[in-house]
Design brief:
mainly alpha, globular, disordered N terminus
Amino acid sequence: KDFNSMDIKLSPSPTDEYMGVQESGASLFSSIVNVMNTIIGAGVLSIPSTVGTSGLVGSFLILAISLYLSLEGAKMLSSTAVYTKAYSYGGVGSKLGNPAVGVVGDIAMILFDFGISVAYFIILFDQAADLVVAWGHVSTDSVSTWKPWLSAALAFFIGFPVLCIPTIDALRFTSTASIICIGLFVVISAVKGIGQVAQGGLAYKWFPDSFSGLVSSISVFFTSMCCHVNIPKMTAELKFPSSSKFASKVAKMNRINTVAFLSCGSIYFIVGAFGYLAYGDAIEANLLTNFSNENAGYLYIVKFAYAFVVLFSYPTLAFAGLVTLDERCFKQPRPTWRRCVEAFIWTCLSLFVALVFPILDKVFGVTGSLCGILLNFAIPAFYYVLMAKKERAKEMSSRFPLFKVSKTY
């Protein structure tokens, strides 16, 4: 049988190098919330605009296809990470015998992570400035003058410390809080959408009405499920005790991926669909803009929650880039002092670009889409093919059923 689909615990033989017990590490729950926090970030409030472009039925179909393909990519990456025992994205490729594709994967991941770090800082600084004006009763001109210092304070006193964490699992508390804040967006979107439908008066699209709109929607939805940069490290951190109900670490990681991806897909569609139902063709690029236009009483609460989501999604995404850079440049393991220096440099560069070259946010949007497609779909599938070839090259008695290629793939 294919072990990927089994939840019954088997007793591995002493020579089984892939079923080793790992009594300490990340739990099932903490891994799920960290995967969800990696997937859902600042982009969640732009999804209603994408639904408006692709239509209610069209967006559901595109998102469903993206979710399925992204989940399959995550499962392939989890299997190859266990197979190679690598904890960085490019390290998987190198241990599978193709260092070149490993280098391509690492470059794509670093560009993707750095672009998101810059974009998240830009969003965070804007939300913080608005909150200071609203809650601190400070003039807009004064905040504009002091914005670089406010931004630096947020980056170095909050962003930098959380980026110094030694493991992704250490972010489970901030990830949980971030998911709770995202729940606020779900509730507000649902209430406003249902209220507007009950009131009536708006017309809605069901499918994309232009080719450019279809392409734009595919670009957004097909990169909206990207958590793959962290999967090798999360797989390495995952606890697999002797008493586990799962047949293998691969089976446990696949359960984590399935729950997290389906939850995030549901959140995306609920926020997107109900946000679009609330405003119809008047939907803005960011749902916050609609709240601002109608001067909603909860506007600044949402802005605060949005800033919180961005702030604590930032380290989960940047973490993989730092781990990869360290592995490429230095001998392992990674000491505390080096981890902190790397986090400080990453924070400085992200802050500098966010303040001095904010227009690069658009450039990073393009590179992010290209890198996201590589990281989500192309490279995991290529890794999986490499793993299958290595297994098939072995004698039948030396092959391990855990890595048997399913007909689904």
